[in-house]
Amino acid sequence: MIDLIKKLSEAFGPAGREEETARLIRREVEQYVDETFTDVLGNLYAVRKGAGAKIMVAAHMDEIGVIVTFIEEKGFLRFSNVGGVSPFVLLGQRVVFADGTTGTVAMEKLDDIKKLAFDKMYIDIGASSREEASTRVKVGDMAVYQSQVSEAGNRIIGKAMDDRAGCVILIKALQELKNTNNTVYAVFTTQEEVGLRGARTASYRIDPDVALALDVTLVGDTPEPLYPMDVTLGRGPAIKVKDTSVICHPRLKGALVELAEKNNIPYQLEVLVAGGTDAGSIHLSREGVPSGVISVPCRHIHTPGEMIDLLDLENAVRLLVAFLEEPVDLEKIFPCQAG
Ligand code: CO
Ligand code: ZN
Fold first, then answer.
1. Cα of 105 to ligand 1 centre, how many Å?
2. Domain 66-145: CATH architecture, name and number where available
């Protein structure tokens, strides 16, 4: 599991440029499913066919990053953000482009650090002129944090745990899934970080009976956390109740809770007051899709040092496998459709 996390976390995949990550994932799942394919937005599908309910499980491949907007005369790169990047987190970090070109992020002279913003910052790739820089980087090229995975006891630190951790859970679940009557559409989605975009077209295409998203969530166990939150690192996967993008289907949420208790899988209940995930667009697809979310507690989200707990990951895999192997009782989840 650690090798897989390392490989995926260190892969390049800002929103809209997920192809390297998709290639790695495809190799991991291919032999465990009936078919794999991609679509126009770059979503990667891995399908296990069955006669039962159509279940869509989404985990996003993309990560946050930066995009070059302008190359200065002296070869410094001006940039903008791709998704939720903080200038304060970015300052002093190294970033890496798709072809391996690296740069360091610096700032202009500022009289007040509170005024730090992307337009006061630049990326230095070591070039001396615009011409030299242009041989390595073009306007529109994207870069991500340069960050290697490290192990800290039972915990893992690295970039893009949001949401390669979800991708790892989905890969592992496909590998471990034995008997299921359901049709499982595992979808490794694109462009979540810029507005849940890949999941929107994927759910339209699949038209699932029920859907789950896998993503990271904030925790409330660090010093003066951003928001008081009843989720703690290492206490099990979180079953989402609500975030700013979705109110999870109450019966589906209930089914996940029941399943966790039946199988002695530790779990937590999550109300996330800032942030959303793929379920936000999936549940609004077509005439509506009952949607739920299994979240991985994660510290320091959207930094190069996102931290997750291996046990949470393993328990999330167990919960997902249990859900996928269980016949989906559509009447129980949607009593209004029973007739
Ligand atoms: Co994110
Ligand atoms: Zn995410």
1. 21
2. Beta Barrel (2.40)
How is residue 308 written in tokens? 């997750």
Cis peptide before 163 (omega within 30 of 0): yes
Report residue 279 CA to chain centroid gap.
12
Q: Would residue 192 show up in a list of annotated catalytic residues for this protein? A: yes
- Give span(s): CATH 3.40.630.10, the chain: 2-63+159-337
Q: How far is the CA of 162 from the centre of ligand 2 (A)?
A: 4
Question: What does pLDDT average to in each consecutive run of 10 residues of the chain (339 residues)?
Answer: 97 98 98 98 97 96 98 98 98 98 97 96 98 98 98 98 98 96 97 98 98 98 93 98 97 95 98 97 97 98 98 98 91 58
Which residues, by Cβ under 5 Å, contact ligand 1, an ion?
162
Tokens of 11: 């892969």
CA torsion through residues 163, 165, 167, 170, sign? negative
User: How remote is the CA of residue 132 from the centroid of ligand 2, in Å?
Assistant: 36
Ligand nearest to the CA of 280: 2
Ligand nearest the Cα atom of residue 277: 2
Question: Which pTM does this prediction carry?
Answer: 0.97
